[in-house]
Amino acid sequence: xxxxxxxxxxxxxxxxxxxxxxxxxxxxxxxxxxxxxxxxxxxxxxxxxxxxxxxxxxxxxxxxxxxxxxxxxxxxxxxxxxxxxxxxxxxxxxxxxxxxxxxxxxxxxxxxxxxxxxxxxxxxxxxxxxxxxxxxxxxxxxxxxxxxxxxxxxxxxxxxxxxxxxxxxxxxxxxxxxxxxxxxxxxxxxxxxxxxxxxxxxxxxxxxxxxxxxxxxxxxxxxxxxxxxxxxxxxxxxxxxxxxxxxxxxxxxxxxxxxxxxxxxxxxxxxxxxxxxxxxxxxxxxxxxxxxxxxxxxxxxxxxxxxxxxxxxxxxxxxxxxxxxxxxxxxxxxxxxxxxxxxxxxxxxxxxxxxxxxxxxxxxxxxxxxxxxxxxxxxxxxxxxxxxxxxxxxxxxxxxxxxxxxxxxxxxxxxxxxxxxxxxxxxxxxxxxxxxxxxxxxxxxxxxxxxxxxxxxxxxxxxxxxxxxxxxxxxxxxxxxxxxxxxxxxxxxxxxxxxxxxxxxxxxxxxxxxxxxxxxxxxx
Length: 524
Prior knowledge:
Structural class: mainly beta
Largest sheet: 7 strands, mixed
Number of helices: 4
Mean pLDDT: 88
């Protein structure tokens, strides 16, 4: 039994945070492992050493330059020379015999993550980050991915509803010099996804060095036709990352690295450092659509307008909202995405508020992008209805409790340290099963819960019913220290008795420290 709910235009996740434009650097940060650390040397007023890690429940109250401009032939530049927003290359695939083929190579390189300092990095088809893949609902895609990293890797299609064998989890790891070629029909409707490594114990290391890219799923719906869709012109990706980098340019990814001295926590937008630069984008259409991804390993990002105005949010992780929602800010935990549009007659600066998510991290408000209109068109009104979201009635759903915990320096799911496939907890379910899970955070640390395979609806957030944009579809959501969320899902289309999906914390260090379990969907 189901019922339909349309979200109100105000958002349970929307928030208006402090507007001071460049917060001061802070010293003295708290470790979740019981060790303090001293703030390091900063580069600029926008370089911050973040405050307290992961607050608990009680404390929670034509477009810019193409991405190829980020690197020269040796791959050693990380910002467009003229300060314009770099836009990742678009891959639409090569069509033949009904299959759209995409080619990626995971490789190492160098880039300037800190201004004037060369870092060892990695990327797909380049030195840092990767191109945007564009898939279309109903197409069959083949992705040929060659590993030139010198180490094992995987490529996970984050948020995609694909067979477990093609999901890119730890069981899909492939060695240096090998090519992995997953193929599947795109069942997802219009939404923003992303891709990144997912091998055991090396996810944080590989992602922070640059192995990440966006996926746009397009469809033929009338709503999609009514929204901006010209990539890099009025449909613009924003891949945001807050990284930990020492003064020599070494990018850190684990506890030892984060507790070292002389750390900086720069914010990057599409690979460009915005510590001392506000990037520019000239909007040649009155209405521009932005797709924002928090590709940080752990920090939380809130995107807002610098003038205090609203953003018109149209989508969450897993696609369109029921209707456009006017929000003052969009809070994204690590791995989360959202889409919003701006109709502009005057320039607007977008800000990102960075909140420390782990033992140390970024903190403060960054002016990262100024959007300047240069358009004379008059777009039609946005569709009043974007999607119909049928809310689950969970009265007859099978119930589970998933507990996120800690054991010394290790992280756990249901008491198991998931650093190997054999050691991690396994959730067994069946095809077409309808389930409601209570995700309990038994620690006082911040967690970002991510479920592979299917989207979920929020039923409760810390005991309260969701509202606003929280009535959309998600695959990644915040679970604050001491808090809980209740989520509902249906396991459709795919079953496998060998390959498993994953559920885990998307703070990548927590994932690598064991906060991951496997999910096996069997035939009923």
